[in-house]
Model the fold of this input.
Amino acid sequence: MLLDEEYKRSFFISHKNRPVPDTQTAGLDTFPRLLLYHAKVRADRPAIREKDLGIWQVWSWDQMKTEILTFANGLAAMGFKRGDKIAIIGSNRPRLYWGMTAVQCLGGIPVPVYHDSVADEMAYVLKHAEVTFALVEDQEQVDKILEVQTQCPALKTIIYDDSRGLRDYDHTHMQAFDDVQRAGKSFSDKNPEFLSQEINKCSGSDISIFLYTSGTTGKPKGVVLTNDNILITARNSAQIDGLNDKDEALAYLPMAWVGDNIFSYGQAYAVGFCINCPEGEDTVATDLREIGPTFYFAPPRVFENLLTSVTIRMKDASKLKQMLFGYFMNIAHRTGISILNNQPVGFLDRFLYQVGELLVYGPLKNSMGFNRIRLAYTAGEAIGPEIFDFFRSLGINIKQLYGQTEASVFITAQPDGEVFADTVGVPSPGVEIKIAESGEVIYRGPGVFHSYYKNPEATEQTKDAEGWVKTGDAGYFDDKGHLKIIDRVKDVGKLNSGELFAPKYIENKLKFFPQIKEAVAFGHEKDYVTAMVNIDLDAVGNWAERHNIPYSSYQELAAHPQVFNMIMEDIEKVNQDLAADEKLSNTQIKRFLILHKELDADDGELTRTRKVRRRIISERYSQLIDALYSNRNQCHVKTEVTFEDGRKGFIEADLDIKNVKTFEPLRKAS
Done:
């Protein structure tokens, strides 16, 4: 499908950014070589921390080297050989990261798996990747593997980190991490040169890792990345933003996601900074405040939740605190971004901003764990301009980037002084970008993936012989040379009137409101646009408590008339914004409903990275979609759900459907 002329003009634009030369580790083209280098030049510097039972445990680079090499020898003693694959399953734990490097010492391939995957999802990856070993965190992951082991004939050995609850299990094909290391010490005594010889056999062009995509339209694909893909991209991106070995990062992203492989692994090895593993998923916010990282990545939803939390807390604060907050935030909005960008600011404004830093901004950043941040990234979805500007006005150097697994993350990023809320930046170092005639963004660069594992057809469809990769995203370059992404190419459609319909663009506008957690827009080959909405239980629940509105469940709160009115007001604001958009003014939302349940990855409605599976939602909720395009004001629905313990059940509800006010398009004067 062709987009209109403004998008087509970008077909002839090709942007390229040159990489920054590396002067320290350029010749070290594998993770094991970098490990040995850092253990030599910064032996006593912290490499990784983990909070365990409330206490931070620290390993230096030299100590980490010993742990990794001992484990690698242990794997060799157990029969692990070059080319073998090992699944890595669990939360962010030092031993799981060590396992990845240990495997790479032997020329093997780590295959991280989303730790919250249900057993069947896990089975697909283990079988497809032909995994022979699995390194897992705890009993929960052991149980899931044992449940599907018969479906994965290549998988012979399970190695676990946390032994709690596993004492009475059959250990015929199970080993504790400590036991593997003990075997490694014995193996190393008998074969002292073995591991160094194996490390010397490895090169930058060797396969570094398999990372499975989220599978929004089908089975996940195994993205094959080389050492060069990861490390060259990691070096280039780290150098352009000045990351160094004094930096600190919090490793809390899923290990199976490419972002963690770059931010918590690739860049840490490229420049030698320390990563910190939180005690658990529930303690991330607390651990973030304790560590005070200098480098941070989070998807927009995290920043949205933080701003929601700040807003809620201020509504419960005293009148004096509310007045101080309001006054100094006005100062921050007026001058903070200019100060961050080193632009001229008047003496009085600069003085007031410093007072605000003392009274408001500093304490606020400290409460969020952001007081030391030099660089923060967000990506994955569009972030609301108000949210983006809020954090930058506090002096937090948050930037957007655009990337994907097949690029080793970085396709574009925002240079200092060129940070805009409505674009994703310029091409990353070494990356070239073009806009195809269809409006699709295509690129090539050092991070371009090797292939899709055992899927040459998909590889050829995505990457051509010259290394150009199709992103599947529609976008264009603005007059500043910055890339704008509007939607997935396959999702960009047209109303029956011929007007352009970009559902993701509309959905992102809806999700800018803290009380809207998820939204799905419909309109392709329809007369008008409609939407399904998920409320944010935390934000709306807090609002309900402050307004003395009782509720006992998500379903009850979502059906409350006052909640409906609140969401309707949000949608009307989106319609006002759309009315001012020349291209999308006729795609205002005319009807909506609030779903009776949250969209859930366990129900197949979202991917593990919380991307909407449109086809599944269209099939599962077809009767609701039909009702949205009728004159009905209510629709009965019965939906199968998966509970936390894996049991299946059903939720029934009568959902109200409301019409929304729309606005006359605001056309620019010719």
Remarks:
- The mean pLDDT is 91.
